[in-house]
């Protein structure tokens, strides 16, 4: 029996997504097509690969045994694709970037320069909390302030990210303690919910509030500046992003405990692909121009 790679891709998508619907969305094909290809694969193996449960699909023992072999096929296919792409000397085609909300906001102003420098390169930017898999080619380039769990990646430092405490002009005027160390006892704070307290500043704020909790808790780092601007309390922001808000005030020096170093990560199998290499080099060049902006405005 010879397995069809397209059917193996569908098997992997169902195993990872847990349903036909999520597999279809991941592969950008119809749900009935996913169902038909799964049946074809199970008929070919003469084995049931998934149990159909009320809350989704779960691997059977036969499916569990197949999974590592299917993942090995996927890795080999990705390596072959990368090798073929690397044979072209021209920087053209599509490059997929995976970034978090903070990095997306920092990189957004650089996109026009990227497009002008690399007119034949299309950029797909996925903004997400979770790490896209470089091994499975869910992304070509990963940009984060912490490394992915993968031993086959190559990293390159892009920039350091400093954080400080901010409050809106109106909130600080109404709450003078915001300008003093009493801010942690007397002021309202905006932070992250329990599931997202690992975001930059989340644990740091909670440590200083003690038994108190932030009065406003959320799960989206991109919204922190808007919530602080609204006057709901004090919060922590990357200094480069705080400058985009005209009515907030920096209340502290850069916080050493919150300093982050942002790296770019790429799988070693695609580092020679011309388009990927060109995007990496251009991003590295352009982020050097952020050095002054990363420090933000002076305290008020």
Automatic annotation (TrEMBL):
GO terms for molecular function: DNA-binding transcription factor activity; sequence-specific DNA binding. InterPro entries: LysR-type_TF_proteobact-type, LysR_HTH_N, LysR_subst-bd, WH-like_DNA-bd_sf, WH_DNA-bd_sf. This is LysR family transcriptional regulator. Keywords: DNA-binding, Transcription, Transcription regulation. It comes from the Bacteria. Pfam families: HTH_1, LysR_substrate. PANTHER family: HTH-TYPE TRANSCRIPTIONAL REGULATOR, TRANSCRIPTIONAL REGULATORY PROTEIN. Belongs to the LysR transcriptional regulatory family. One of its GO terms (biological process) is DNA-templated transcription. Residues 1-60 form the HTH lysR-type domain.
């Amino acid at each position: 029996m010879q397995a069809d790679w397209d059917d193996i891709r569908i098997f992997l998508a169902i195993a990872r997504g847990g349903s036909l619907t999520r597999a279809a969305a991941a592969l950008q094909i119809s749900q009935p097509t996913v169902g038909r290809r799964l049946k074809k694969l199970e008929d070919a193996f003469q084995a049931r690969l998934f149990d159909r449960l009320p809350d989704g699909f779960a691997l059977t023992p036969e499916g569990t045994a197949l999974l590592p072999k299917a993942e090995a096929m996927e890795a080999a296919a990705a390596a072959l694709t990368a090798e073929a792409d690397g044979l072209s000397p021209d920087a053209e085609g599509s490059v997929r970037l995976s970034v978090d909300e903070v990095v997306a906001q920092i990189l957004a102003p650089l996109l026009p320069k990227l497009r002008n420098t690399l007119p034949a390169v299309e950029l797909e930017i996925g903004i997400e909390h979770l790490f896209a898999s470089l091994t499975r080619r869910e992304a070509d380039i990963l940009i984060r302030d912490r490394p992915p769990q993968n031993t086959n990646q190559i990293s390159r430092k892009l920039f350091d990210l400093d954080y400080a405490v901010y409050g809106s002009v109106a909130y600080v005027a109404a709450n003078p303690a915001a300008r003093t160390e009493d801010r942690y006892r007397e002021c309202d704070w905006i932070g992250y919910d329990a599931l997202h307290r690992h975001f930059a500043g989340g644990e740091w704020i909670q440590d200083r509030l003690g038994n108190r909790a932030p009065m406003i808790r959320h799960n989206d780092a991109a919204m922190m500046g808007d919530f602080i601007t609204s006057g709901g309390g004090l919060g922590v922001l990357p200094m480069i992003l705080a400058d985009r808000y005209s009515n907030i005030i920096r209340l502290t020096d850069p916080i050493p405990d919150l300093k982050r170093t942002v790296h770019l990560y790429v799988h070693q199998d695609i580092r020679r692909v011309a388009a990927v290499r060109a995007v990496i080099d251009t991003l590295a060049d352009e982020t050097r121009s952020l050095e002054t902006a990363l420090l933000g405005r002076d305290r008020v």
